[in-house]
Structure formats: C-alpha cells, structure tokens
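Subject: Protein record for review, amino acid sequence with backbone structure tokens
How to read it: Take the token row as a discrete description of the fold.
Enclosed: The protein record, placed directly beneath this head.
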Amino acid sequence: MRLLLDTGPLYWWLLGHDRLPARIARLIADPGNAGLASAVSFYELHDKTRLGKRPGELPNLNTVLPAAAIPILAISG
C-alpha cells in the first residue's frame, strides 16, 4: 500500500515520538507499504518550527529520510 504521510504524522515519525498512534507507526514501518512525503510538508515543518508551533528542532533530514526510506514527492506544475 502507498501511504502519503501528512505533515503531522511525518513529523512524529521522524522524531520517533510516541504521539504517533501505534496503528499508523505500524503501517509506516511495514515493509509491504511505501511511505511517501510531500515536499510541502518540509516547508510546513520548517515554518511551524520557526514560529514556535512545533516543539524542538527538526531532525537532520539528510540523515533521517534516507534511513527511513521515505521518498519525497516534488512539487510540479
């Protein structure tokens, strides 16, 4: 199954936070599923972090994304 991760679940997944529901974490972790993220989510995460609406710092995306094997969907016109 292909999973398009919304900004919130993507954020909690990347942080390994227990705020991500266990059912969603299992779906993302299942090797039979393919998690995908929109490039827009990273803009949203950066903006919310900058405004203080997200706790903590964003993880280093160059490190966690390849490790999590989550491809980024580019914005196209």
Remarks:
- The CA atoms of residues 47 and 53 lie 9 Å apart.
- Helices lie at 7-15, 22-29, 39-50, 61-68.
- The beta strands are 2-5, 34-38, 72-73.
